[in-house]
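Appendix C reproduces, verbatim, an entry submitted by the partner laboratory led by Prof. M.T., so that reviewers can inspect both the input and the predicted structure.
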Amino acid sequence: MNKLKDFPDVFREIDKITSGYKPTKKVTANRNRKRGRKYEKELAERFKGLRQGLYGGEDVAAGPWSIEAKTRKKFTGNAMMEQAIRNCPEGKCPIVVLHIVGQRHSEDIVMMRLGDFEDWWGKVKEAS
């Protein structure tokens, strides 16, 4: 039994449109930019730095750090980090070192959780 049979056609049309709604590329891009700006602001506050993403160049300047802020819904690095956490003996800090085949090892990428970074480094002081 169709629950909408007693409603005007306009409600049926609204249901058709909204049941399979997929945002346009422009809507998605705007949402991603907004999410990125919000994250830059949060990092700038957390690191007591200055959000500069709107001017180009580094997103956040914080003491000795030049932060490029990224947000993702999915990231394959999560699985790598989870493995590092599982295999990490108590009292040590899990990190992931990612090597790209064909690149110099000095270019490898080091990942660690932000909470572990703050525990290790301490709260970052305001830039002088």
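The chain has four helices and five strands. Additional entries are available on request from the coordinating office.
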